[in-house]
């Protein structure tokens, strides 16, 4: 019953109505079994009870399937038939005999009102409630205070059920739109991170080195590699897609999969030593600029001074999370090479606080002028905003950036385990 209906709030509403319908049938069955022998026509009463059971079973199966199968005509036809049968059984109960003897409670008839409210909203609930209320008056043959109260209860129940069902469905649709928009934003940010870490860095390298005599074959090779990486990335969206890797990046640094140095924990999840990964990253980092008076363009360049301090013991972290932390630290070190000034050095401090790891990247460069980060983001430079903050935010962490002109910059990453 529950597996064949539509998903989400609409499916939950139909299942709730089915439960109400069967509870009503059970109540009618117990009450009729206790007093039906005193009715004028007990066989007719038993027949009406059988119709209630059979029709409840049919609707329990058919209505959710019609809704899930996108058959609006069949669904509306079933609900119209439901309202008609509910109203007919109210009148038919009068033929069974005195209400005090046959005791066929007509709470079950309210299910038709609720069904119409789910399909046609408040208007459907009020119209079907009014019809069933008229049938009660016809059955009793008089307008009593009790019938007035019952009629008002039917009308109010239909109106409230219609309003709440429409409100629920609209809220669910709005939530789905918001989640879809959020997923789209997250996917665009993921693409921006990968493009920034790979393609844009290679383009910057080509733009810087080509005028200095970088061989045309090397330019063509780098361009072809990044074109292929970008095409793979766009063809395979999602966290598991191919990624563009910047030259010199350590294995697994931005793949998100942590292939390098990974181990499996007791739960079968790949683990990596974040301390070793950061040491490997520091070993691989170079400054793309030749030293003053040093080798000619296109020849090996000097290594950037990067000092890594770790706890001295492995710092295990889930491999995919470790890869993202390493990629964020690499982006921070790339910022040092680009913006901290000639001769700047960097220090990376890794701390294991149990529930989280803290990575601090400091440099002794020119520092961070007020408003510089905001201007960089407005100009489309994505290093701090996307490659660092975006990655850490996706891991559930936070980034703090401190810096003053002439006093270096400090980037602190807090990443929960």
Automatic annotation (TrEMBL):
Residues 326-416 form the Histidine kinase/HSP90-like ATPase domain. GO terms for molecular function: kinase activity. One of its GO terms (biological process) is phosphorelay signal transduction system. Residues 242-257 have a biased composition (Low complexity). Residues 233-267 are annotated as: Disordered. Keywords: Kinase, Membrane, Transferase, Transmembrane, Transmembrane helix, Two-component regulatory system. It holds the Pfam family HATPase_c. Residues 13-175 form the DUF5931 domain. The chain crosses the membrane at residues 12-34, 40-62, 74-93, 113-138, 145-164. It comes from the Bacteria. This is Sensor histidine kinase. It comes from Pseudofrankia asymbiotica. The lineage of its organism: Bacteria, Bacillati, Actinomycetota, Actinomycetes, Frankiales.
């Amino acid at each position: 019953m529950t597996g064949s209906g539509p998903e989400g709030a609409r499916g939950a509403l139909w299942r709730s109505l089915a439960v109400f319908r069967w509870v009503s049938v059970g109540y009618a069955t117990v009450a009729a079994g206790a007093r039906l022998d005193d009715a004028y026509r007990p066989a007719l009463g038993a027949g009406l009870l059988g119709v209630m059971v059979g029709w409840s079973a049919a609707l329990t199966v058919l209505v959710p399937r019609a809704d899930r199968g996108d058959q609006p005509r069949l669904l509306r036809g079933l609900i119209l038939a439901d309202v008609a049968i509910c109203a007919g059984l109210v009148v038919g109960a009068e033929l069974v005999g005195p209400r005090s003897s046959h005791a066929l409670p007509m709470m079950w008839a309210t299910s038709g009102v609720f069904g119409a409210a789910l399909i046609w909203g408040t208007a459907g609930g009020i119209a079907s409630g009014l019809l069933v209320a008229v049938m009660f008056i016809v059955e009793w043959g008089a307008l009593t205070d009790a019938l007035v109260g019952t009629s008002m209860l039917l009308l109010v129940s239909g109106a409230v059920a219609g309003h709440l069902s429409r409100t629920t469905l609209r809220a669910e649709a709005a939530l789905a739109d918001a989640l879809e928009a959020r997923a789209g934003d997250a996917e665009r940010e993921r693409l921006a991170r990968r493009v920034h870490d790979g393609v844009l860095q290679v383009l910057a390298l080509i733009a810087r080195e080509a005028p200095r005599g970088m061989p045309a074959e090397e330019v063509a090779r780098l361009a072809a590699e990044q074109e292929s990486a970008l095409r793979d990335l766009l063809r395979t969206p999602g966290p598991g897609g191919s990624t563009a890797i910047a030259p010199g990046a350590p294995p697994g640094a931005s793949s998100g999969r942590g292939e390098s140095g990974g181990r499996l924990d007791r739960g079968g999840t790949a683990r990596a030593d974040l301390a070793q990964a950061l040491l490997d990253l520091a070993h691989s980092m170079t400054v793309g600029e030749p030293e003053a008076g040093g080798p000619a363009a296109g020849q090996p360049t000097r290594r950037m001074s990067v000092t890594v301090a770790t706890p001295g013991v492995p710092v295990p972290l889930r491999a995919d999370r470790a890869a993202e932390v390493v990629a964020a630290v690499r982006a921070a070190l790339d910022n040092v090479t680009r913006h901290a000034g000639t001769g700047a050095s960097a220090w990376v401090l890794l701390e294991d606080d149990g529930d989280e790891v803290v990575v601090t990247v400091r440099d002794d460069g020119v520092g961070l002028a007020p408003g510089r980060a905001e201007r960089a983001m407005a100009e489309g430079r994505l290093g701090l905003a996307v490659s660092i903050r975006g990655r850490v935010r996706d891991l559930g962490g936070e980034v703090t950036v401190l810096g003053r002109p002439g006093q270096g910059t400090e980037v602190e990453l807090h990443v929960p385990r």
